[in-house]
Automatic annotation (TrEMBL):
Full protein name: Uncharacterized protein
Length: 42
């Protein structure tokens, strides 16, 4: 049972890291976009 739980946790961890990597690109783009607009909003 412990082995299965560790395996499931590892899979979830891998998937979240993959999602985070994918979201980081979108996030950095969103941050650049937001800061760009904040500069000109002032």
């Amino acid at each position: 049972i412990i082995g299965t739980e560790a395996f499931e946790h590892g899979v979830k961890d891998f998937l979240t890291k993959k999602e985070v990597a994918k979201n980081c690109k979108t996030l950095s783009r969103a941050i650049k976009y937001a800061t760009y607009h904040l500069k000109f909003a002032k």
